[in-house]
Amino acid sequence: YECEDRRNLKKLLTGNSGVKSIGFLVGPEGGLDPAEARLLKTAGIPTVGLGNRILRTETAGEAALAMIFSAG
């Protein structure tokens, strides 16, 4: 989530979070609406950032996969 400034994907993967499986959602160009992000959080889905750059929809998924594979 582009507005997530407390937790990034690297911290989630390398920390003591107990993550056993990962799925991810890439939002549309222009980003998720804050109400959509709240809905995800309410459902127990943690939001994370991918860094300080805003990525295009076409590249955000590949960047997330690269981060996931490099942490494993």
What does this structure look like?
With 72 residues, this protein is mainly alpha-helical. It is 42% helix and 0% strand. The protein has three helices and no strands. It is globular and about 30 Å long. 3% of the residues are buried. The mean pLDDT is 84.
Classify the helix fraction into a percent range: 40-55%
Helices and strands: which structural class?
mainly alpha
Number of strands: 0
Shape: globular
Radius of gyration from the CA trace?
12 Å
Largest sheet: none
**Beta-strand residue percentage:** under 5%
Mean pLDDT score: 84
N-to-C span = 22 Å
Catalogue the unreliable spans. Answer: none
Specify the number of helices.
3
H/E element order: HHH
Please outline what is shown here.
The chain contains 3 helices and no strands. The chain is an all-alpha fold.
